[in-house]
């Protein structure tokens, strides 16, 4: 049963995040320390250095031979269900779009399990719940955040091509001919690239992005170290830890910088804030409940599966949204307000699920 001491542990885990957030916010809003370009540079530091190293360090220390693969299957099925719904919405609805499908997937599926989920679920269901939350975090980092990065890169690459094609109309007649003559020779007559050509370009870009393989390298090391009982050399581990320990803090600091650059504290408005909360605290858990029952989860494992799906928004999803220019205001609001309202929501789920057998 959850007591005040358990609630205090959750608050203790969350409070430092808001300290980093406020420092970032104040440094731009009131102290005027950073310019807009410097804020973008800080976000790139987080995106390409601290978060990949954090992901590697985290996944490198798990035990891949001791996982609940039925739980992992339920998690995968729940996310596939949401992907199918979003794909149908984007294809069939006049209001559907590729960009909003990506954001909606992030809002409904990607969680900040380690900061909020671990202390709270430990109080609810003990060490078993912590193990499941950690496994879910590994699977999220390895599969779903990598997939998110892939579709964001596809979107940006496609938009860059469209921009270059549109920009071609602004050239004068002489510059445009010269180019047409060259394009005839090279075979580029401004046709939209095929899916495979686009995919090749995206993979080349992802090869330069450490986020796309940090978790893969980490889980590979985890397999090797657990199988043959080898330890990472201390000089390498120390080099990784010095940056990875700053991952969550610098991510929240970057979010504070972004918030300070907005005209309003809630940059996306009340309606989108509510939309994000509904996806996070209702759509995600409902999809997880359906998938968990379908694969045969029951008892406390079923309860943990549903509750962990309602854990607040992943901070990494905001960093990616900011880097790729896709609804960063919605994701930042989801992270901040999600962590504020998560405690009563998760306790409410806990109380309701006590009646589920």
From TrEMBL:
The chain crosses the membrane at residues 12-33, 45-62, 68-90, 102-121, 133-152, 202-223, 235-260, 272-295, 333-352. One of its GO terms (molecular function) is auxin efflux transmembrane transporter activity. This is Auxin efflux carrier component. It comes from Buddleja alternifolia. It is a multi-pass membrane protein. Belongs to the auxin efflux carrier (TC 2.A.69.1) family. It is found in: Membrane. The keyword Transmembrane applies. May act as a component of the auxin efflux carrier. Its main location: membrane. GO terms for cellular component: endoplasmic reticulum; plasma membrane. Keywords: Auxin signaling pathway, Membrane, Transmembrane, Transmembrane helix, Transport. GO terms for biological process: auxin polar transport; auxin-activated signaling pathway. It holds the Pfam family Mem_trans. PANTHER family: AUXIN EFFLUX CARRIER COMPONENT, AUXIN EFFLUX CARRIER COMPONENT 1B-RELATED. InterPro entries: Auxin_eff_plant, Auxin_Efflux_Carrier, Mem_transp_PIN-like.
